[in-house]
Specification:
Layout: E1 5-7, E2 13-15, H1 24-32, H2 43-55, H3 62-75, H4 79-103, H5 109-129, H6 137-157, E3 222-224, E4 229-231, E5 236-238, E6 243-245, E7 250-252, E8 257-259, H7 264-289, H8 295-300, H9 309-340, H10 345-354, E9 358-360, E10 365-367, H11 375-383, H12 394-397
Antiparallel strand pairs: 1-2, 3-4, 5-6, 7-8, 9-10
Helix pairs in contact: 3-4, 3-5, 5-9, 6-7, 7-9
C-alpha cells in the first residue's frame, strides 16, 4: 500500500497507505498470519486505530453503519432469527458501554448508532410502509417534522453544557437561590469542609473542597485540583471530557457530551420529541403491517407479519424501535423525577455512595435533601437554567 501513489486535488502526490507504514503491529501481524501464529494482546486494536488514522475516520463510527442494516435484514428472514438478533443486539450495546465506561474512554459509537438508527428507520418507513397506501401524506409530513425538530434539539443539546473556562475569582460567581443547600455546611479551622461529598465525583479525591474567605457559609465552593479552578456549587468534573461543568448532571454517551446547566433543557426536549416521534412512527407502521389491530396488541400478535419480506422487515424495525424507545423512556422518566426533586444524577450517585440520601418511589429517585424546594419551585428553577441571574440594585442589597 505504501507504493500505491495517487495525486491529490491540489496536485500533490501521496501514498495510499502512508499512514500504515509506521504501524509496528501491522508489520508484525503480516509476519505472524502466514505462519498461523497468534497476535499479541492489543494488536488488533492498534491495527484498527492505524487504519482509521490512515483513512482519516473514527473507527467507532463504522460498526453501526455496517452491522445495523445487516442484522435487521437477517432478523427479517425468520421469527427465530428476529428473536436472536433483537435480544443479542441490546446485550452487545450494553457490553460495549460498560467496557468504554470502565476504561474511561470517549467514543462516537453510541452517537453514530443513534443517528444512523433514526435515518435507517425513516428510510425503511418511506420504502416499505408508505408505498402500501395506508399512510396519508399529512402523516408522513408530521413524522418528518417531528424528526427534524428532534434533530434540532439534539444539535442544541450537543453544544456547550456549561464548561468552566477560567478560574472564578473571589466574589465574582454567586449561586442562585435554588442552588443554596437547605442544610448548613460547617467548615473547620483549616478551611476544609467536613462534608465534601458533592464535590468528590467521578474519581476526584476528597479533601479538595474548601470555603472561600468572605463567602457566606451556605454558599459552598469547590476547588478542582485537575482543572485548577474554583467551581460554584453543584458543578462537577467530568472524567471523560476532562473539564468542569456547571450543575453537572451526567455524561451522556448518546450525545457524546455532558449534560449540564446550559444544555439540560435541550436534552429533555430532545428525549421528549424522540419518544413522541418514535411512538407515532410505530403506530403508523403497525397500522399498515397488522391491519385492524390495536397497536399494543399488534406489537405482540401479528400473524401476517412474516408473510412477505417487506412486512417482516417493517415489523422487525418496529420491534427495534420499541426496544430503543423503552430504554429512552426510562431515561426520560428518571430525568423528570430528578427534576421534580431538584437533584442531579451525579448528586444522587454520590448520595447513595455516602449513604446520605433517601430512596423514593421504589428507588427510582434519590432525595438528597439539599436543594428540594417543592415540585413547582423545582420545575421553575429548572426552566430558568441558563438564564442570566437578575441584577440587584444597591438599595436591595442594603
Amino acid at each position: 500500500l505504501c507504493c500505491c501513489e495517487y495525486e491529490e486535488r491540489r496536485g500533490q502526490r501521496s501514498r495510499l497507505g502512508s499512514g500504515l507504514r509506521d504501524c509496528q503491529e501491522l508489520g508484525d501481524g503480516c509476519d505472524r498470519w502466514p505462519r498461523c501464529r497468534p497476535l499479541p494482546p492489543g494488536a488488533l486494536r492498534a491495527i484498527a486505530d492505524a487504519f482509521a488514522a490512515a483513512l482519516k475516520i473514527n473507527a467507532s463510527l463504522v460498526p453501526p453503519l455496517l452491522l445495523l442494516p445487516v442484522l435487521l435484514r437477517v432478523a427479517a428472514l425468520h421469527l427465530l432469527l428476529a428473536l436472536l438478533v433483537l435480544t443479542s443486539l441490546p446485550a452487545l450495546v450494553l457490553w460495549y458501554y460498560y467496557l468504554t465506561h470502565r476504561r474511561k474512554e470517549r467514543t462516537l459509537f453510541f452517537l453514530s448508532l443513534g443517528l444512523f438508527s433514526l435515518g435507517y428507520m425513516y428510510y425503511v418507513f418511506l420504502q416499505e410502509v408508505v408505498p402500501q397506501g395506508r399512510v396519508e401524506p399529512a402523516q408522513v409530513l408530521t413524522l418528518t417534522c417531528g424528526l427534524v425538530l428532534m434533530l434540532a434539539a439534539l444539535s442544541r443539546a450537543k453544544k456547550d453544557p456549561g464548561y468552566l473556562r477560567s478560574p472564578t475569582g473571589k466574589g465574582k460567581a454567586h449561586c442562585q437561590a435554588m442552588d443554596l443547600p437547605s442544610k448548613k455546611v460547617t467548615g473547620s479551622s483549616n478551611g476544609l469542609h467536613g462534608v465534601a461529598s458533592l464535590g468528590a465525583a467521578n474519581g476526584e479525591a476528597r479533601g479538595h473542597s474548601r470555603l472561600l474567605a468572605g463567602e457566606p457559609e451556605g454558599m459552598r465552593k469547590d476547588w478542582c485540583a485537575r482543572c485548577q479552578l474554583v467551581r460554584p456549587a453543584r458543578a462537577g468534573h467530568c472524567r471523560l471530557c476532562g473539564r468542569c461543568v456547571r450543575r453537572l448532571d451526567h455524561h451522556c454517551v448518546w450525545i457524546n457530551s455532558c449534560v449540564g446547566e446550559q444544555n439540560h433543557q435541550a436534552f429533555i426536549l430532545a428525549l421528549s420529541l424522540f419518544l413522541l416521534t418514535s411512538v407515532y412512527g410505530i403506530t403508523l407502521t403497525l397500522g399498515t403491517v397488522c391491519r385492524g389491530r390495536m397497536p399494543l396488541v399488534a406489537l405482540f400478535y401479528c400473524p401476517g407479519a412474516y408473510s412477505d419480506y417487506s412486512s417482516a422487515l417493517s415489523f422487525t424495525c418496529v420491534w427495534y424501535c420499541a426496544i430503543v424507545t423503552a430504554g429512552m423512556g426510562y431515561i426520560l422518566l428518571i430525568q423528570l423525577l430528578n427534576i421534580s426533586y431538584n437533584v442531579t444524577e451525579r448528586e444522587a450517585r454520590l448520595a447513595l455512595r455516602d449513604n446520605t440520601g433517601r430512596r423514593l418511589l421504589g428507588g427510582l429517585v434519590v432525595d438528597t435533601g439539599h436543594y428540594n424546594r417543592g415540585f413547582l419551585c423545582n420545575w421553575s428553577h429548572f426552566l430558568s437554567l441558563g438564564s442570566p441571574a437578575p441584577q440587584r440594585s444597591a438599595e436591595d442589597i442594603v
